[in-house]
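User: I'm preparing a small set of examples for a lab meeting where we compare how different chains pack in three dimensions. I only have the primary sequence for this one, and I'd like the structure in C-alpha cell form so I can line it up with the others. Please keep the answer compact; I'll paste it straight into my notes.
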Amino acid sequence: MLAIACAKKSDTTSPILPGNWVQTQGPGSGIIRCMAVVGDTILAGAESNGLFFSGNGGGSWVQDKTAVPQTGTTSAVVAVNDTTLYAISDMLYRSYNRGVKWEGIASLPSGTVTLSANNSLLVTGTQGTGGVSVSRDGGKNWSQSQPVSGNYLNSVAVIDQDIFDGTTGAGVFYSHDYGLHWESLNLGLSNLDVRCLLISRSLIYAGTAKGIFLTSNKGQNWSLLSSGLPTDLPVSCIAASGTSLLIGNQDGIWHSADGGTNWDPATGDLPFTDIRSLAICGSSIVAGTGNGLFSSGNNGISWSLVGLAVSTVKSMCIGMNNLIVAAGGDIPLVYITADQGNQWSLASSVINTHNVASLAYGSGYLVAGTDSGIFISRDQGHSWSSRSSGLASLDVRTVGIGGSYWFAGTFNSGFFRSANNGQNWQKLTTGIPDNKFVFSVFCQGSEVFAGTSFGGLLISKDYGLSWILQNQVPENTVISSFAASGSTVYAGTHNGVWESDDSGQTWYATTLSNQVVNSMLIIGENVFAGVQAWGIFSTALKGTKWAMLVNGLTYKPTVTSLATDGTILYAGTQGLGVWTHPLK
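Assistant: Understood. Below is the C-alpha cell output for the 584-residue chain.
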C-alpha cells in the first residue's frame, strides 16, 4: 500500500538564490562536425548543439543564439566572402553579417549534409540519394539534379557556374551548366571513393579513401600528392589558407606549407586522432574531433583543449577543491576545472571504456564506474588503474563511498561492496535478488540507499550487509538519485521526487510529481532536483512548494547531475555542458 501525502507540512516556499545561471565553456567533449573561417572568425558546427564562434583563432568560443537552432546539428557551414555565411541545420540559413544574425531561407531534402556556395550559386548534397539541389539566386529558387544514381554523395564544390560532386565508388562528377548535365572526371584519380572536396586558389583537392589528389584544370586530370604521407592514406577532411594545407582522418593530421607538394605529421600531442573537421586561421590551426575541439599555434606540435558547451555530463563530484566531470563524446572521459568552470583540462584518456557512468571521491581516491568495470585514480584522474576483481559484471552504473566501504551497482548483476579500496569486491545478497539493476547509491553513515530500475528502493542500516525493500516508493519506476540531511531523505525517480522524514522508514510523494528526476542535492536548507527537459527545481528543506530555478537559462536543459563546492551550484546537462549558479 502506498503512503502518499502531497501536503503534509506547512506551505513552505522554495528558496530564492542570488544571481543567475551561467553556462561554462566546457568540459569540452562532443562531436565537431564542420568548421569554416571568415576573416578572423572561426565557426564550428557541433553534433546536436548548433553553431559556435571564435574571434581569436579558436582561443575562446561563444554559442550562436540567433536563428540557427542551438540544440540542432549543424552539418555544414561555409563562408562566401568576408560577410556572407551559409549553414545547414534543420534548414538552410544565411547571415550577411558574419553570423551576428541568421535567417532561414530554404527547406532542404532530408539527409542534406554538404554545402558549397559561390556568390549567388548554392549547391547542397544529400547523402542517402546522392541528389544535388542547386540555387542560382542565393537560395530563393531551387532545382534538383542527380549526377549519378546509386552512389553515396560525400561532398560538393563550386567554381563560378561549375559544380563538382564527390561520390563513394564513382569518383568526381562535373557540371558546367548549373547541374543540368554531368560528366565523369576521373582521369588520374586512382581511387574513386571521394570523401571530401576543397577549392582553394582555383585549385581543387579531392580527399579519397587512398590519398589526396590535386587538379589545376578543373578535373581534366588529377595528380596524387604523396610526398611525406603514408601510402594509401585515407583523407576525411581538408582545410586551406593560401599555400598552407591540412588533411585529417581517424588517425591524425598532416600539414603542408607548399600547397600539398610536401607533407609533415601535425598530430603532435593531440589526445584524439578521430578528426572530423579542420580550420586554419592566421597562425592557429583548429581540429574538430569526436571528443571536442583542440587548437595549436605551432603547426600541430602541441595542442590545447578548447572548452565548448556541447558536452553531455554523466556524473560530477568535488575532489581536492576541483570539480571533476565525466562527460560523453565518442569516448567518454574525465575532465577537471579548478576555477569554477572558466578553464577545463582533460584528466586522462586512458580509461578503456565507452561509458563513464558514475564518479565518487573519498579519502584521496577518485572512483569511476564504467561499462568496463571500476577504475581508480590517486592523482585527480591523470592516471588510472582497474579495480574490478570479484565483480560479476563489468557494466557498472553507479559507485558510492560510505565510511571505509565502496559500493558498486551493476546492470542486472546486483550490488557489490569492497572493504579494501576496490582491491576485491563482494556481492551483497541478503535482501537483494541477483538480477537487480542498481541504478543509484547514496551513503550516509552506516546507512546505504540503493535505487534500482523497476526493482524498488532498498535500504541497509549495516553498510550493505543486509537490505530491506521499501515498497512505499513504486517499484515500477527508475530510482535515479538520493539526497539527505539528517533523517530527511529525498529520492529522485522517473516519476517525481519522494521524501522520508525518518531515515527511509516511511515515504511520501512530494508535489514535484510526473517528472523524470535525474539528480538530487541538498545544500544547507535548500533542496535541488535536476529534471529531464525542465531544468532545475528547488524547495526549502521539508518544504512543499517546488519552483523552477530559471534565472539566466535561455532554455530548459535536461539536467543530468548536480554538485557543489559550497559557494557554487553546478549543473551538468545533456549536450549543454556545465552551468554554474552562485549560492551566496
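A couple of notes for your slides: The chain has no helices and 56 strands. The domain at 312-582 is CATH 2.130.10.10 (Methylamine Dehydrogenase; Chain H).

User: Perfect, thanks.
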